[in-house]
């Protein structure tokens, strides 16, 4: 990174580094726009220092032709910094100043590509060992409108090998159980 004034970080004490970080974060906060986000690099750096709350949309439907339940998954880009090339449930961090409904509007527009007709909070998932930091997820059972979106429907008993392990082994099975009871 290039700075207009050279700062030799190696010569700063731990407290001086913290003070510099506070000054920089205050400067960033003044011009922060939740609609634009903070960028992946800054988000990943901050995520290591705090708990990040993420609503996740588990979109399930019953396929009567096959008598099976399907889940809607999104494929991450190969250049994504988190889980590149893996299928995952739609979800996103709550940005400062946002309500949870704002996150779902972003998910509809940017990740799902289909309108969410309904959502119901079912449970939370605490993941303090996520590689990017400590993530606390609010898991919602969602119903999508018909149409083509950005993702793909999969039978819950035949998920792609490259599905996020936590989604495959914890979240999707719990939500299928909930779906069957509703």
UniProtKB/TrEMBL annotation:
Domain Nudix hydrolase, chain residue ranges per copy: 56-146
Pfam family, one: NUDIX
Protein name: Nudix hydrolase domain-containing protein
Top-rank taxon: Bacteria
Organism: Candidatus Staskawiczbacteria bacterium RIFCSPHIGHO2_02_FULL_42_22
Lineage: Bacteria, Candidatus Staskawicziibacteriota
InterPro entries (alphabetical): NUDIX_hydrolase-like_dom_sf, NUDIX_hydrolase_dom
